[in-house]
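Our preliminary data section would be incomplete without showing what the modeling component actually yields. Below, a chain of 371 amino acids is followed by its predicted structure, encoded as tokens that our downstream tools consume directly.
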Amino acid sequence: MKVLTVFGTRPEAIKLYPVIHALRADARIESRVCITAQHREMLDQVLHFAGITPDHDLDLMQARQSLDELVARALIAVGRVLDTERPDWLVVQGDTSTAFAAALAAHHRKIPVCHVEAGLRSGDLHQPWPEEMNRRVIATFAALHCAPTEIAADNLLRESVDPARVHVTGNTVIDALLRTRARLLEARELAGTMRAMEDRFRGRRIIGVTAHRRENLGEMHAIAATLRQLARRPDVGIVFPVHRNPAVRDVMQAELAGLDNLALIEPLAYPEFVRLLDVAHLMLTDSGGVQEEAPALGTPVLVMRETTERPEAIAAGTARLVGTNCDKIVCETSRLLDDPETHAAMARAVNPYGDGKAAARIRDLLVSAPR
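Predicted structure:
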């Protein structure tokens, strides 16, 4: 059986590399990999760490290209790969423009689609944008839905997806996280930049920050003002790997450069980022993946968004929605810094996203599922 896995961004690579390794280890499966390189340098870091050499590198990234251009180019380019490979299954992950275009190209050819991390819903088509639409569309024609949680599976069932095609597998990001943390314990040098950050902020509690969502690009000045206010505290060190999007980078460099206890650094390699999640006292983020990853390491998450497609984290108490209002973020961050009981309650809450065995379950489903 031939399985083609298509992805284009760093988060997809992180969540799919355990699946690719599981496929490659099974003699029943011929595993092929295609990347669109929707993210280039950030994607390449993960591929190198994971030991994955793509069979097809479409290299579609262009400066300031529109979503229309990206989707159109990906649809055509992935279609050509599908015509060459003629796989029995296409595997896509999540909700990116790459996943949407690849799944649509497969649907045009009646190639069954396995959707990893299926069933996430925020309930608002514009948050996150365009991801909410992407994953909903993929769900309408996927042949195999690998839901990370029961809530995600229930979302699919409410949308009349065939129950026989919906399976709760856990989230593959936990597979990747636990594997990487184990490697960090064996090889400290993989922590790279974070070793310098830990030395710089020794004796202070580290606040990790990520901010890059499209729907938050107009809020970057507000987020910068919030971080500037938090940086007034002498007991914290803020580590902010700044996304390469100029709409993020230009604002943060202009408003936050030069603060003694705030480090604006280049995007971290995946093992370095896992180390940040592990040593941080808390994470401020608008990322979806961080809501899943940080709780697995006992790190509370404050989500700088108005809604989340990961309500399990909110319900479990491992994450809290704070939006982008400066006063609210500062208030909630201060609670976690100043109230040990509040911090402990979030840190000790049970992570709802899996046991690190999702990739093996997905492999077995691909072998046994009807097409």
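DSSP finds 16 helices and 13 strands in the chain. The longest strand covers residues 2-7. Preliminary results of this kind motivate Aim 1 of the renewal.
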